[in-house]
Amino acid sequence: MRVPIRHYLATTTVSTFFLILLGVYTGKIGAGLTCEARWPLCDGWMGLFPANWLSFVEWFHRLVAMIVGFMILGGAIMAWRRDRGRILKFSTSLAVVFLPVQVFFGANTVLNFGVAASMMHQFAAQMIFGLLVVSTTFAYAQAKFNGSESSQVHPNAKHADD
Q1: Where are its TM segments located (predicted)?
Q2: Which of 102, 116, 114, 135 is nearest to 20 (CA)?
Q3: pLDDT, position 148
């Protein structure tokens, strides 16, 4: 069974929003400072396992970011494989382009903690989130335009969003 791209993108967008909230919490408590300017390592056993609450929050943020990053990449792949139109391909692809930028800025918040580093990291996050909102909105509009929103469709029928 193929997941409709609009549902996948909605899940990815909501996950990205929660990742941003987790990132705000991570920055607010200064969890990146526990890494003592060592990126990608942190404190704990061999620099890989959390030694305290702050390093746990930092590592958890990184784990969730990795999962959401792969979800974003999956959305772009779906848009291209299912030939979902230029707007959807462009917005999901641009979100993928911002992923390494976001990782770079995230590393910068650990290496050079400060307002500028945090603002650049947050800016990249908001760009990705905005592009995902555009993608999700367009995917739902496209499905509605193609008529796959109808609840009267037979469950085994071929939908326009498949």
Answers
A1: 7-25, 59-80, 92-111, 123-141
A2: 102
A3: 58
